[in-house]
Design a protein that fits this description.
The chain is α/β, with parallel strands linked by helices and 546 residues long. It has helices at residues 2-6, 44-56, 81-85, 94-106, 122-127, 157-170, 189-192, 195-203, 209-226, 262-268, 287-291, 303-308, 326-330, 333-342, 350-366, 373-382, 389-395, 422-425, 431-446, 449-463, 465-470, 476-501, 506-520, 531-544; strands at residues 8-11, 14-17, 30-36, 61-65, 67-68, 71-72, 110-114, 178-180, 230-234, 247-250, 272-275, 309-316, 398-400, 526-528. The strands form four sheets. The chain has an eight-stranded parallel beta sheet with strand order 7-4-3-12-11-10-9-8. The chain has a two-stranded antiparallel sheet with strand order 1-2. The protein has a two-stranded antiparallel sheet with strand order 5-6. Helix 2 (44-56) runs parallel beside helix 4 (94-106). The structure holds acetamide. Acetamide binds next to loops.
């Protein structure tokens, strides 16, 4: 049905389908999107519109990250302190959970909940500190981002009673067979600091904290089995004694210093597995990057091993994402990722994908996704409702800092910091930059005159950005952007002049070098993503117009 919807065509008389035969089937059965509703709570309306968009691009698994250090987001009747003390009042009622699951189900989307334990447990332990591993520790809802020490105590029976009661209450809200227990990033510091836990490890001959966590996971697996659920966890749960019934969610790969993602290793060891390494959309990398990651790559697998690879998931971690910005962080890149999960491995033509993504981009808007309009909303806010054209032009050549270099150390922003800044109006794949960078590449490779013409048009436009920028009364946020606007205009004017006059003096060279150096520095958590191209043009002018 979604394919059919994509095929609607029109003329002046009406709307129609071309006469076509649709022959299509997915490459992977598990095509997911994870949304982190813990770091920043995401209201039901946000989830529903994103589920609609997921269905449109044939994603069929919604992985709902519901608990973390920054909040516990589900109402429990048995353990009400969870929502009362560990959610800041931002949680889903059980009726709301059913509503979201129903909405997803009607769209053919399964919902896999995640309750992240035993680490990432600051919120749970804020409500029930007695379950923690460090006695007397002042557990509180975490406001920063990162990996924290509060960890459930794996040697206390009370921990398992709590989890069994909680899961028995919560699991029926989620009809899906799979149940995600997180399990990531437990560094075991509080375990190391607890004498009883150390003694327990010795007595049970548990060699290290990984073995202790596996002891914990095996107990959880039994609880979940009774509830008719299959345990799924992030790839840290994979140890020699992990039951083969566990599903391994591979998230670590080259970025984490491994030779390849843990996906292949898990499949070879006999586990069902799902890949997220390469699809971390919160890293703010380009659509081209994600589209180019093949879940299996060149791995050689037996038929049985291949069958264990269920599929893949994009992950929308929400440390820096609010209901206002989440759509633009997910879309349209996830549409291309969805195609990677659906289509044959050989479908890799980037230009063709980009062309089709432009169409999907607006279809997403039709479904209620706010990725396009919210840029203007944020820019109007930061300019105090003045004309935003100059800011908007700038936002189309800037991207938020990538790979977690925004929010260094996890402490530049807190949960309730405003995410209504210029960087929040910017997105990956800044559209004018993508186009400009392409034209520069073509021009330098082939001396294409049409490309040169396009380059001149862009430079001319940016050369006046600062004049427009200055026409408005500056707010604190726009004022901080002034050097960026000014330097973009100066270098654009210089290069535009040089390309017209075919002259580039020693002084021009020196000034342009200075400007490039200044523009290299991040400003207000964004980078200027035309910088490489500008630098190449400076080289070109230096070489040819000297
Ligand atoms: C993860 O990114 N910690 C699973």
């Amino acid at each position: 049905m979604e394919t059919l919807l994509q095929l609607v065509n029109f003329n002046t008389k009406g709307y129609y389908f071309e006469g076509v035969r649709i022959k299509d089937a997915p490459r992977f059965v598990w095509r997911g999107l994870m949304i982190d509703a813990a770091r920043h709570f995401q209201p039901v309306a946000v989830l529903k519109r994103n589920l609609d968009a997921m269905a449109a691009v044939k994603l069929n698994v919604f992985h709902w990250h519901l608990t973390d250090d920054q909040g516990f987001r589900v109402a429990s009747k048995i353990y009400p302190k969870l929502q009362e003390q560990a959610s800041d009042g931002l949680f889903y009622t059980q009726e709301q959970i059913k509503e979201v699951v129903r909405h997803a189900s009607n769209l053919g989307i399964r919902v896999v909940p995640e309750f992240d334990v035993p680490g990432h447990a600051s919120a749970i332990l804020t409500a029930y500190p007695a379950l923690g591993s460090k006695e007397g520790y002042p557990y509180s809802i975490e406001r920063f981002s990162g990996v924290f020490n509060p960890t459930l105590n794996p040697i206390k029976e009370a921990t398992y009673t709590f989890l069994e009661n909680l899961f028995t209450e919560i699991a029926p809200l989620f009809p899906d067979e799979y149940f995600h227990i997180g399990g990531d990033e437990n560094e075991g510091k509080h375990w190391d600091e607890n004498k009883e836990i150390q003694e327990f490890k010795k007595k049970q001959q548990l060699k290290n904290n990984h073995a202790l966590q596996t002891y914990f996971n095996i107990k959880l697996e039994k609880i979940l089995k009774k509830l008719g659920k299959k345990l799924m966890g992030w790839d840290e749960i994979l140890t020699p004694s992990t039951p083969k019934t566990a599903v391994i969610h591979s998230w670590r790969g080259k970025q984490e210093g491994l030779a390849q993602s843990t996906l292949i290793a898990a499949a070879k060891k006999g586990y069902q597995t799902v890949l997220s390494a390469g699809y971390y959309i919160d890293r703010m990398l380009s659509v081209t990057h994600h589209y180019s990651v093949d879940p299996i790559g060149n791995a050689v697998l037996t038929k049985e091993e291949r069958k264990r690879i269920l599929g893949a998931e994009a992950t929308m971690w929400s440390e820096l994402v609010t209901p206002q910005t989440i759509d633009a962080r997910i879309w349209p890149r996830t549409a291309a990722i969805a195609e990677r999960f659906w289509s044959a491995k050989k479908i890799t033509d980037i230009n063709n994908m980009q062309k089709r993504l432009k169409v999907i981009n607006f279809q997403l808007e039709e479904l209620g996704i706010t990725h396009i309009k919210n840029r203007d909303v944020i820019l109007r806010n930061i300019s105090n409702h003045q004309n935003i054209e100059a800011l908007k032009a700038l936002s189309k050549i800037c991207e938020p800092l990538k790979i977690y270099s925004r929010n260094k150390g996890g402490t530049e922003y807190k949960t309730f910091s405003p995410f209504t800044l210029f960087a929040d109006a910017c997105s990956a794949d800044a559209e004018d930059a993508v186009a400009f960078n392409h034209q520069v590449q073509v021009f330098l490779a082939s001396n294409n005159l049409n490309s040169l013409q396009q380059i001149k048009i862009s430079l001319k436009k940016w050369s006046t950005n600062y004049v427009d920028f200055q026409k408005h009364k500056q707010t604190p946020i726009t004022h901080a952007l002034e050097p960026l606007s000014k330097n973009v205009s100066l270098i654009s004017e210089l290069l535009h002049g040089s390309l017209l006059s075919k002259k580039f003096t020693k002084e021009d060279q020196s000034i342009s070098k200075q400007l490039i150096k200044q523009l290299k520095e991040p400003c207000q958590d964004v980078t200027l993503v035309i910088l490489d191209s500008l630098n190449k043009l400076v080289h070109f002018c230096t070489t040819n117009y000297n």
